[in-house]
Amino acid sequence: MxxxxxTNLEKSWVLYDVGNSAFTLLVSTLFPIxxxxxxxxxxxxxxxYMAYWGYATSIVTVIVAVLGPVFGTITDFxxxxxxxxxxxxxxxxxxxxxxxxxASWLIFLIIYIIAKCGYSASLVFYDSMINDVTTEERMxxxxxxxxxxxxxxxxxxxxxxxxxxxxxxxxxxxQMTSMSAAFIITAVWWVVLTxxxxxxxxxxxxxxxxxxxxxxxxxxxxxxxVNIKNEKSVFLFLLAFFCYIDGVYTIIDMATAYGTALGxxxxxxxxxxxxxxxxxxxxxxxxGRLSQKYESGKLIPICIAAxxxxxxxxxxxxxxxxxxxxxxxxxxxxxxxxALSRSHFAKIIPAEKSGEYFGLYDICGKGASFLGTMLVSVxxxxxxSANIGVGSLVILFIVGFVLFNKSxxxxxxxxxxxxxxxxxxxxxxx
Length: 430
Description:
Blueprint: H1 8-28, H2 30-41, H3 46-75, H4 81-98, H5 105-128, H6 130-133, H7 139-153, H8 155-167, H9 175-192, H10 195-200, H11 213-227, H12 232-261, H13 266-290, H14 296-315, H15 320-347, H16 354-364, H17 369-383, H18 386-391, H19 393-429
Helix pairs in contact: 1-7, 1-9, 2-3, 2-12, 3-5, 3-11, 3-12, 3-16, 3-17, 4-5, 4-9, 5-16, 7-13, 7-15, 8-9, 8-13, 12-13, 12-15, 12-16, 12-17, 12-19, 13-15, 14-15, 14-19
């Protein structure tokens, strides 16, 4: 089999990235603008708007951080992963449709929290499927392709929605109605592109069912949490991932809100973020190709260092052209750091417990953005400047860089010990 040619199952898995990425793009672009419009009508200031948006995002990450590992552990049992995955998909898609049907900023945020929880939960189960979908040597490439095609594919419903928002008045649609239509288009796109995965996916790696599935799941999860400190490479990676991906997701989730709070043109912001997706497509594929020549352990630190520079640049952001530069730079490294982190983690965990471990991964991933969004929100309110909150993300990238390199060092120690033990066993047999 060609290293670059995807199987039908791998293609089906990649397509879900294409589908769910449309929701991600919508959350980072049109959702904040819609919320800004209805919150302004209710008399909320720009600082309040940004703060409440950050608080809502933080609530989502806390909920997923608590429930993700529990449900992830349950999905490791044979026959449970797909049904629970479908349930989270339905919650996310229905919530996406309903958000455009309210003019109340509070109800909008409540529905947003529910929909984002469904979406985030689906990613826990989806990410854990990679161990069933492909082999270890192909994980970096397959994961990178998922993010790459996700970036470019998400542009289709986004462009359709954007055209409705910008020119809907030409066909008699109000801006609010056009926004609602954009939400529905995104939900339909998301669900339709999930169908191939639902048809082709079969759970290969699993834990045998015991009496009392829920109780056993809690026992397994508790045992893993206790023992994970002994798995130094996994533990240190999760700590590193918690730090550096915190900054990445905070930038993604609050980019439009940040630009809007600075008074930048909404249309320009949306077009800049569209460019981010377009740039991210070839960049993610390039990192996928590079992963065939260089280990993910060498490529991830490069991405972290790049994001450190991006955060420093964001601290001085005050004009439209700087936002465009920021958007392009984010697109160059966003796909690489997300895809390689996912596949790197999949390689260092037990395949049969992928749901359980990816639940913890999600805590340190999307759950980590609780800290970033809360930091930006609090700093914005206390100082009256969003730039200060964004600039503080530099610390997280630096700490993440240091911890990741330590995790690699520990992983090399383990591999060396295992190799020496294997050599001893071989010698004794001879």
